[in-house]
Amino acid sequence: MITEAILTTTARLLSGASVRWVDSQPDTCQRVYFANHTSHLDVVLVWSALPQDVRRLTRPAAAKDYWSRGWIRPHIAKVYNAMLIDRKEIKVHQSPVDIMLREIGQTYSVIIFPEGGRSSGETVGDFKSGLYYLAKKRPDLELIPVYIDNMNRILPRGEFLPVPLLSSITFGPPLWLEAGETKNEFLERARNAVLKLRERER
Fold first, then answer.
1. In a 3-state reduction of DSSP, which class is residue 147?
2. 164-179 pLDDT per residue, tens
3. Hey, what's the torsion of the CAs at 134, 139, 140, 146, to 10 degrees?
4. Strand pairing partners for 171?
């Protein structure tokens, strides 16, 4: 059986990831960690990069169609306490945002990937509206940008086995939805926060 210790150690060994905090620090307060997305391993890697006390209060949102297949993926998802989101059957009053807010309650933080699908890793795609509605419905949550570098080469699209390479994860300063800020303005500002962390890696 895979345990939390084995999962986090394996993720770190495979990625060789260095972890940086820029103008922020690990904290057990409720947060939304929002990151760029280039690999199915992103969700495990960001979760594993958090200190244990923070990790145990953080639930990644993950694609149900991927993490519920086979026998090993559902077990891994259970270890990191994932919220499996159905991206295909979205019902009224059961949107992904509603599900996440119900699941985190007043206790848990959440890891999300606002681009929706995976990108090539060459840039950060446009953000979908979920992050905006999370910020609007729960303005008390800190929103922490995260940039993951090099994961698209560790587990390229279409591949099953990862290739060990050095990668990095950078957590940035918190932001919040500002008064009067439109959805498009906020999503662009949030995307730029991730891009600024990307520039630090260049």
1. strand
2. 456 789 999 999 999 9
3. 50
4. 21, 146
Two tokens at 178? 């500002």
Q: Which residue's structure tokens are 């933080």? A: 109
d(CA 43, CA 37): 9
CB 90 within 8 A of CB 133: no
Residues 151 and 39: beta-carbon distance below 8 Å? yes
Whole-prediction pTM: 0.86
Q: Could you tell me which residues come within 8 angstroms of residue 167 by beta carbon, excluding any fewer than 6 positions away?
A: 15, 16, 17, 18, 45, 148, 149, 150, 151, 154
How many C-beta neighbours within 10 Å does residue 64 have? 18
Is the separation of the CB atoms in 101 and 139 below 8 Å? Answer: no
Ranges of the chain with pLDDT below 50: 152, 154-156, 159-164
- Domains of the chain, earliest start first: 4-200 (3.40.1130.10)
**Burial status of residue 27 (CB atoms within 10 A of its CB: 0-12, 13-18, 19 or more):** middle
